[in-house]
Each structure stands twice: as C-alpha cells, then as structure tokens.
Amino acid sequence: MRPFDYRAPQDPATAVATVAGRPDAAFLGGGTNLVDHLRLGVAEPGLLVDVTGLVSTEIRDDGGGLWIGAGVTNADLAADERVRARYPVLARALLSGASAQLRNMATVGGNPLQRTRCVYFQDVTTPCNKRSPGTGCSAIGGATRQHAILGASEHCIATHPSDMAVALAALDARVQVLGPDGERTIPFTGLHRLPGDAPERDTELGHGELITAIVLPELPIAARSDYRKVRDRASFAFALVSVAAALEVTGGSITDARIAFGGVAHAPWRAYRAEEALRGATPSDDAFRAAAEAELADAHPQDGIDGGNAFKIPLLARTLTATLRDLAREEA
Ligand SMILES: Cc1cc2nc3c(=O)[nH]c(=O)nc-3n(C[C@H](O)[C@H](O)[C@H](O)COP(=O)(O)OP(=O)(O)OC[C@H]3O[C@@H](n4cnc5c(N)ncnc54)[C@H](O)[C@@H]3O)c2cc1C
Ligand code: SF4
Questions:
Q1: Nearest CA to ligand 1 atom 2
Q2: What are the tens digits of pLDDT across the range 60-85?
Q3: Whose CA is nearest to atom 2 of ligand 2?
Q4: For the CA atoms of the chain, what is the radius of gyration?
C-alpha cells in the first residue's frame, strides 16, 4: 500500500476545500470500499480526508419526505421506523447488501459512490479502461456473468454494485452536494453516468464535491414497495439482477408505478418504459411481462468465457413479474 496523509477537518467546507485543492485527495466515509482499493492498489490517493465526524448522522422529516444526512450508516437507515413504513423498498435494499458488520460502517454518502465489482477492475495486472484509461477492457470477451446488458459501451461493460442506489433511483430521491462553488441539488437518477468513452468517471460529481445528504420526497406510492435481489449466494453477494418497485392500483387498474433495476447497467437503471407500459393496465402476469419486455427491448447481452450473461434478460423479466405480482396482491 502506498503511504498517504490523513486529515479529519472540523467542518464540511474545510473538507471540500482540502480535497478540491489536491488532485490526489479523496474523501473517506466508512472506508469499506476505499480501504479495500488502497490495499489492492486500485486507488492510490496521497491524502484521505475523513468526513465521518462532520457530515450529519441525522434522519429528519422534511415536508412529508425524509432528509438523510450523508453520515447515517446503512444499518441505521434500514432500521429507521419511518423508512420501514414509508419506503420499505429502501430498507429491504439496504438489508440485502453486504453483511451486518459492513452495514454498521457503510455510509449513505459512500454507498452510492462505491466502485464496480468487475473482477478485472479489481485486478491491477489486467487492462481496464475504468482503472487505467486507454488500456482496454478485459471483460469484453472475458468473464461477463456479472456485467451489463443495458447502456454499456465498447469501452466498458461494468455494472454499478449498490443496492441502496437502485431503491433511491426508483424513489425519485435527490442528492445534496457541497462543492468548491457552493451547494447544489441533483436528482439521484442524474448522479451516475453510463460509461460512453469515459468509463473512468462513474458519476457527474466533480473532484471535491461532497455528498451532504439524500432527500426522499413525499411519495405515498412508496408505502407499497419492495426490493428483490437475485444473486449466486443467499447472502454476502452482489446482485446478478435486482428490482426496486412500487405499485399503485386503483379501481382494478394500475394508476402509477416506480421501477428501477440493479446489476444490469453502469448506473442504477430507472425503468421508465416499463412504468409507462404499466400505467392504465389491469394487473396481470401478461401486463407485467409486457412491461419487462418494453424495458428490455434494447438489452444487449455479452458473450463470455463463462457462458455470457444473456440469462439476465429472462431472469430480470421473471423477477420484475414476481415482484409486481406480489405488490398487486397486497393492493387487492
Ligand atoms: C465483502 C463486501 C460485500 C459487499 N456487499 C454489498 C452488497 O451486496 N450490496 C451493496 O450495495 N454493497 C455491498 N458492499 C459495499 C458496501 O456497501 C460499500 O463499500 C459501502 O456502502 C461504501 O460506503 P462507505 O461509507 O464505506 O464508503 P467509502 O469506502 O468510505 O467510500 C466509497 C467512495 O465514496 C467516496 N465518499 C465517501 N463518502 C463520501 C461523501 N459523503 N461525499 C462524497 N464522496 C464520498 C470515497 O471517496 C470513495 O470514493 C460490500 C462490501 C464488501 C467489502
Ligand atoms: S468492464 Fe469496465 S471495469 Fe471491467 S475491465 Fe472493462 S473497462 Fe474495466
């Protein structure tokens, strides 16, 4: 591991100025992803700026929604009664991720910024455009079981690993950010980037921009919502595919839906086409399958030495259908 400096400033503005002033500096949240990358040599920051003591650990009611400080741990957020009652999809997504010990350390600011679990990204002996721009993509034609079927590019086919982020994408969450030029708020669905020709950039955040909070809007539909994750092991594994969904059924027809997919793209994938296909439909397996087909029409599976990932298309369609079927049953 390369030697690095460590600072723990007293306020967010100083932390932002410190990171913004050094191209090789990085914020340190719970450290559960960044410290792994230091050990592997995937990240080599010269300065770590610890933000755990200075970003808020508060969850408060906010005009019918919730304001969640970036320092709240994944464990505390999953356990919050308001989250469990008003946004169950978020609590279930959090509880499906990592282990209890990791969730006690992982923070709301750090979780959406964790980097891909692409095995080539984590192996510094292999070419990887995300880790070392311009070196190539070892995953294309390699092991692709975990890789993207939507929105990938010829430069990178990695998937985004966070479960919490999939729920936040479905919930129309917003991200509060403090940067060198002041505060700004961005929609959560605008935080992550597709790889295009710059896969080294995971998000739209600039260097030195600190996530200070996530804001959940008032969203009555979210009271009936669920997160379903399919993985190779029952726990302690990242998603092959996942579905975050909320459904509203009135008078026997679907009046509204919120859907996002995980494990299939470089970003949490908000399934707008599936939502549109559902509005006005009568809840049925046929309608749910048609919604999945509408969203997956542009899916582009990868061949690979491990058999590729075309299996994700029917797996995701079935996972979405089962999730919506159960939500519709709850509504009845
Ligand atoms: C064995 C294992 C299994 C796991 N399984 C899952 C899983 O199934 N699902 C899942 O979702 N996750 C899983 N994780 C990942 C884990 O959830 C993340 O590592 C964690 O959420 C990251 O949060 P952190 O606070 O520790 O971030 P850190 O590791 O501290 O930081 C991550 C990144 O965010 C940046 N950062 C941190 N805080 C801020 C901030 N406030 N503003 C701006 N930038 C910031 C850091 O600079 C760094 O780039 C697993 C991790 C491990 C080790
Ligand atoms: S998929 Fe992306 S992260 Fe994985 S090897 Fe290719 S460029 Fe690197």
A1: 98
A2: 999 999 999 999 999 999 999 999 99
A3: 156
A4: 20
Using a 6 Å CB cutoff, which residues line ligand 2? 116, 118, 120-121, 128-130, 137-139, 156-158, 199
For a mutational test of ligand 1's pocket, the pick from 4, 36, 114, i.e. the residue with the most ligand atoms closer than 8 A to its C-beta, is 114
The dihedral through the CA atoms of 188, 195, 268, 203 has a sign that is: negative
Q: How far is the CA of 222 from the centre of ligand 2 (A)?
A: 34
pLDDT in tens, 195-230: 999 999 999 999 999 999 999 999 999 999 999 999
The SS3 assignment for 67 reads strand
Segment 270-294 shows an average pLDDT of 98
Secondary element (H or E) of residue 176: strand 174-179
pLDDT tens-digit map of 300-329:
999 999 999 999 999 999 999 999 999 999
Adjacent-strand bridge partners of 132: none
d(CA 267, CA 201): 12
Question: In the 3-class helix/strand/coil scheme, how is 275-315 assigned residue by residue?
Answer: HHHHCCCCCCHHHHHHHHHHHHCCCCCCCCCCCCCCCHHHH
Q: Could you tell me the distance, in angstroms and rounded to a whole number, from the CA of residue 155 to the centre of ligand 2?
A: 7
Looking at this protein, which amino acid is placed at residue 251? G
Report which ligand 1 atom has the smallest distance to the Cα of 209: 43
| Ligand number with the minimum distance to the CA of 119 | 2
CB 49 within 8 Å of CB 18 = yes
Q: Model-level pTM greater than 0.90?
A: yes
Q: Which helix (H) or strand (E) holds 261?
A: strand 253-262
Contact 20, 207 (CB under 8 A): yes
What's phi and psi for 272, nearest 5 deg? -65, -35
